[in-house]
Q: What sequence folds into this?
């Protein structure tokens, strides 16, 4: 059923429900890339988040749900959304069907179990019964999954683990659990079983693709963008629809591209994304992302940011929605965008010693005032080493004078050493003479310690070590100073680095 | 009485014998308190310090004495005593000086005791940099009489030696000394040194928490907030009992600190007023107010890191002050050397400059010289202590037992392998 | 011959050595008998202000017994002056400095005014690149025409477009060090470090 998108109202502006001018977005075509539960999940999400698509998405969702035995979800949908009329007849019949199905499956399971016990002696039959048992569990698990009872489904799938003999079976189990985990949003299980699956030998590229995509997805949900990017990029190219119960190839391109842009540095970006022939195939599916990444790399920031905005809010693209409607990206899109924007600001400024803020504001589609605020934040986070000349509206790069810094630091080290040494001497003396704050004691033990005028309470080894450390620090100071007095600034830096690194250990 | 005075003139005797001789008279003195003034009149504190001190100590126990007389006598004694004779009876000295401080406080003339105790603190210890109970008494008097500047030269010297036999010092004196020193430094606005002093008080070795440590920590916390704008941590040598429990006694301070780091001035004001009663009880309300005032300064300082020039209007907006106030604050900060800036009233702009210190020239050379000299002296002290430990019998014994133990373990291992 | 009002510090006064006057006062506040030192409280307080030590001035004021504060009229005015200095209320500062404190205190007040003006002048020179004549006259306590005259003799330019002057920063005086002493200390340090190595 094709929705005629042309008679949708176009609304600009933002609201708590994203109103998008997307009179060209083809929800049907988009959602048909997916199968299974994720399709329903995405439809529900879109209904939640977007006003225009609410009705359409809910309708589609309702139809999809009816194809599955998931009565609970249907009930939730109807109570939440009074656009949908409650089909009582369907509900009742499905419940009956579900109940009988569960009965049958559990009976099968029990028979398989009892068979196993009876024929335990006959070894050759054992493997066969194992198989039956395995299949029974899988079926039960599948059923629970389709009815929306994820907890039970997970339990069943995990139980099959003991009966898996062939690696293919293990793989199937892992994929099942991964599927359930993703739909439950329980990514801990997902990650565990992905690692397990990756350890099975002879993985087909499709399996690898699925595993990598799943791993990327879990990293994305955990906001580990760099890891997510790496995993998405390593996924072998697969448009067979194998992944459709979880993710679509366009999604891989979008998620991977955005995460890479937000977290890789320039050389990584070039090596892993732009020059990557495998990932390029995915990028072909979403040319905007490809253009976006290339623009960033070639420093065409305003065009890059334009693409980003278009993708987010104003999608003229038929095959996929604006990113705010995407179930996985929704929570992360702002963070990712912020990161990409900050990176472009830093990259823009890096070759300059001074730059005109007006030109920079134009390049980044913003006003000088807003740009000043953004840059001050970046400077305070130490991402840019520069200072703003607010009077003339310029940004000046800031060079640190190594020589002054070294002087300052060595004076500070000297003062700190003196303080620390005096403190330690005092504390040592206190311990030596047993001048300690003590709680009320029942017996009077503290008498005899005071007599030992030598090494009261402190372990002499510890004290020896402390002494050595103090000497070393002192040495460092004297060395630095004498060096400074007789050498050029380059030498100072060199010596100073030695203090923090190997020099002290040689004294020890 | 006369026998006592006669004995005290026998200064040719070795000190220990003189001490035993004179102490024999103590009971006699205690039974004849009405004659003590006469005895004192006959003694010269310069040469007969020990005898004088013994009489004074007996007088402390006399409830019916004339307090003014007592104060005069002690002041006279402190201004002229001979340290060598006093070091053998330090507990008497502590008793007398504590009683002295008490009487001065009761008669509301603490300032009279400041100079005599100052001399006592310098003359009494045998080695320099030794802490005595009189240090704590002296600081207490300075605070009570508001003569903070008198204490400054004493507390600026580092005191690392302790000699309980000679000085009868105990842990309360040490902690009080550092606590008072911190208070004096804070009053004189030397905040970095105040932090050092307070920290000594609450990181002192301890197996139990003391009230002095808690009070010192409270003040340390507030001064730290004022100077650094962040919450202080525990240095690694803090005793475990302090680390674990001290924050439970300063709940209002910890809460205030957390709001403070948030940076929202309105919230900070609210939090301060909410806990004002607690702060007032601890007499720390002034410090709280100072910490709030320091926020503006710190915000301006942060601006100098980000901007090269900024209009006065923008600065005022950033730190939430009026432009006139912002200008006066910046002027004060330039005067104190906290920031380096130039104000241009015509354009209404402030230019922030880099630190013009080039670290070249005579001033820095002299400073480096003094620092190195201090460190070299300190280092020789450390080496000598190190040698002392390394050659001490207890340490050598420990090394030997450790070696023997590791060797015997090896032997046992061999035996197992063979068997 | 006029008898000196403050005999003990007369010699310092004649040499304009105010630093030593201050240390004398600090030493003798507690040493002398109360009645002998009473008349010096004024001098003490003013000298703290000359040295720009407001903190210690405040503590001194708190220490002075209230009977003395009530008896001496000048003491209260000097303390008011101290408060204005700590708040940098320039208008009131200069008004107070103009009050007649009597012939004994006159040299001190004079020195205070001179040193205060000098300090403010240095501060403005180093902190402003452009200051309005109105503000400069407020800070320095002199009329606007005098401001122009005074500053121009010190090298400041008058900015014709607006009513302001451009201060010139004041360079601090450098002290030359002793060369041979430095070589001695350097050899000592090297000797020390070398010994450690063995």
A:
């Amino acid at each position: 059923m094709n929705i005629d998108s042309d008679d949708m109202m176009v609304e600009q502006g933002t609201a708590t429900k994203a109103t998008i001018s997307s009179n060209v977005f083809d929800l049907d075509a988009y959602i048909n890339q997916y199968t299974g539960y994720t399709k329903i999940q995405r439809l529900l999400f879109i209904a939640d988040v977007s006003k225009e698509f609410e009705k359409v998405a809910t309708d589609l969702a309702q139809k999809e749900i009816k194809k599955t035995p998931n009565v609970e979800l249907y009930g939730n949908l109807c109570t939440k959304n009074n656009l949908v009329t409650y089909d009582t007849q369907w509900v009742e019949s499905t419940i009956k069907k579900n109940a009988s199905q569960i009965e049958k499956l559990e009976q099968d399971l029990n028979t398989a179990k009892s068979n196993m016990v009876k024929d335990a002696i006959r070894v050759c039959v054992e493997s066969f019964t194992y198989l039956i048992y395995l299949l029974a569990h899988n079926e039960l698990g599948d059923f629970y999954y389709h009815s929306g009872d994820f907890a039970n489904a997970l339990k069943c799938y995990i139980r099959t683990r003991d009966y898996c003999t062939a690696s293919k079976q293990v793989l199937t189990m892992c994929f099942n659990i991964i599927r359930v985990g993703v739909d439950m949003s329980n990514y801990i299980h997902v990650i565990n079983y992905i690692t397990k699956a990756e350890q099975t030998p002879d993985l087909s590229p499709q399996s690898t693709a699925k595993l990598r995509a799943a791993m990327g997805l879990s990293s994305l949900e955990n906001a580990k963008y760099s890891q997510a990017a790496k995993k998405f990029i390593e996924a072998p190219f697969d448009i067979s629809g194998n992944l459709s119960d979880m993710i679509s190839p366009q999604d891989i391109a979008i998620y991977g591209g955005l995460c890479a842009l937000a977290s890789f540095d320039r050389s990584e970006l070039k090596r892993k994304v732009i020059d990557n022939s495998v990932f390029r195939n995915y990028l072909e599916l979403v040319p905007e992302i490809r253009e976006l990444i290339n623009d960033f790399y070639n420093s065409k920031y305003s065009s890059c940011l334009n693409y980003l905005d278009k993708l987010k809010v104003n999608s003229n693209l038929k095959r996929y929605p604006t990113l705010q409607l995407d179930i996985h990206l929704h929570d992360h899109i702002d963070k990712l965008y912020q990161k990409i924007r900050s990176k472009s600001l830093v990259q823009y400024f890096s070759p300059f010693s001074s730059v005109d803020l007006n030109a920079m504001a134009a390049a980044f589609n913003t006003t000088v005032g807003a740009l000043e605020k953004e840059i001050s934040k970046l400077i305070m986070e130490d991402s840019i080493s520069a200072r703003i000349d607010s009077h003339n509206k310029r940004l000046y790069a800031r060079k640190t004078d190594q020589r002054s810094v070294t002087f300052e630091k060595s004076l500070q080290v000297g003062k700190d050493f003196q303080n620390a040494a005096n403190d330690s001497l005092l504390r040592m003396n206190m311990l030596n003479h047993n001048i300690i704050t003590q709680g009320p004691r029942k017996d009077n033990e503290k008498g005899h310690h005071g007599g030992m005028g030598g090494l009261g309470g402190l372990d002499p080894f510890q004290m020896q070590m402390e002494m050595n450390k103090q000497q070393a620090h002192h040495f460092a100071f004297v060395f630095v100073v004498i060096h400074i007095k007789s050498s050029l600034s380059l030498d100072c830096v060199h010596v100073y680095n030695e203090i923090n690194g190997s020099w002290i250990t040689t004294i020890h | 009485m006369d026998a006592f005075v006669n004995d005290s003139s026998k200064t040719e005797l070795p000190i220990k014998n003189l001490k035993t001789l004179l102490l024999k008279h103590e009971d006699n003195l205690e039974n004849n308190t009405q004659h003590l003034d006469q005895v004192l009149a006959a003694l010269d504190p310069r040469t007969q310090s020990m005898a004088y001190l013994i009489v004074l100590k007996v007088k402390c126990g006399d409830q019916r004495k004339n307090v003014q007389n007592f104060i005069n006598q002690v002041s006279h004694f402190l201004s002229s005593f001979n340290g060598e004779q006093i070091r053998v009876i330090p507990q008497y000295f502590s008793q007398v000086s504590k009683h002295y401080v008490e009487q001065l406080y009761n008669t509301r003339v603490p300032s009279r005791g400041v100079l005599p105790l100052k001399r006592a603190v310098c003359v009494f210890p045998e080695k320099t940099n030794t802490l005595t109970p009189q240090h704590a008494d002296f600081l207490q008097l300075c605070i009570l009489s508001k003569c903070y500047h008198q204490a400054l030269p004493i507390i600026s010297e580092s005191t690392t030696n302790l000699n309980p036999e000679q000085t009868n010092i105990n842990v309360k004196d040490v902690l009080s000394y550092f606590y008072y020193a911190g208070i004096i430094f804070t009053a004189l606005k030397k905040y970095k040194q105040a932090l050092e002093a307070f920290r000594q008080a609450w990181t002192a070795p301890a197996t139990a928490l003391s009230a002095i440590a808690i009070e010192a920590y409270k003040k340390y916390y507030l001064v730290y907030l004022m100077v650094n704008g962040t919450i202080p941590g525990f240095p690694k040598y803090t005793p475990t009992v302090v680390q674990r429990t001290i924050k439970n006694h300063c709940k209002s301070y910890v809460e205030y600190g957390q709001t403070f780091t948030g940076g929202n001035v309105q919230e900070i004001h609210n939090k301060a007023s909410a806990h004002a009663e607690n702060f007032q009880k601890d007499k720390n309300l002034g410090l709280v107010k100072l910490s709030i005032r320091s926020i503006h300064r710190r915000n301006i300082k942060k601006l100098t890191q980000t901007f090269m020039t900024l209009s006065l209007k923008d600065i005022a907006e950033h730190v939430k002050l009026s432009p006139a106030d912002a200008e006066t604050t910046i002027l004060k900060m330039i005067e104190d050397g906290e920031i380096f800036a130039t104000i241009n009233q015509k354009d209404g702009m402030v230019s922030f400059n880099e630190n013009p210190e080039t670290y070249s020239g005579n001033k820095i050379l002299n400073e480096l010289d003094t620092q190195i000299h201090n460190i070299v002296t300190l280092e020789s002290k450390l080496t000598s202590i190190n040698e002392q430990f390394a050659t001490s019998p207890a340490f050598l014994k420990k090394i030997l037992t450790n070696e023997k133990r590791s060797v015997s373990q090896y032997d046992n291992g061999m035996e197992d392998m063979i068997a | 011959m006029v008898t000196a009002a403050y005999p003990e510090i007369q010699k310092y006064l004649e040499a304009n050595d105010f630093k030593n006057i201050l240390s004398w006062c600090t030493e003798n506040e507690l040493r002398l008998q109360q009645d002998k030192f009473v008349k010096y409280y004024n001098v003490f307080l003013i000298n703290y202000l000359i040295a720009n030590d407001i903190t210690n001035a405040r503590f001194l004021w708190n220490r002075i017994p209230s009977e003395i504060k009530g008896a001496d009229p000048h003491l209260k005015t000097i303390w008011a002056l101290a408060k204005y200095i700590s708040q940098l209320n320039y208008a009131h500062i200069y008004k107070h400095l103009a009050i007649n404190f009597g012939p004994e205190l006159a040299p001190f007040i004079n020195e205070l005014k001179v040193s205060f003006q000098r300090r403010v002048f240095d501060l403005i020179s180093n902190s402003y690149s452009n200051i309005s004549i109105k503000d400069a006259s407020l800070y320095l306590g002199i009329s606007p025409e005098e401001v122009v005259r005074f500053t121009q003799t010190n090298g400041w330019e008058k900015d014709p477009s607006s009513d302001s002057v451009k201060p010139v920063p004041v360079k601090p005086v450098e002290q030359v060090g002793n060369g041979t002493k430095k070589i001695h200390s350097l050899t000592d340090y090297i000797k020390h470090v070398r010994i450690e190595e063995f």
Notes: The first helix of chain C runs from residue 10 to 14.
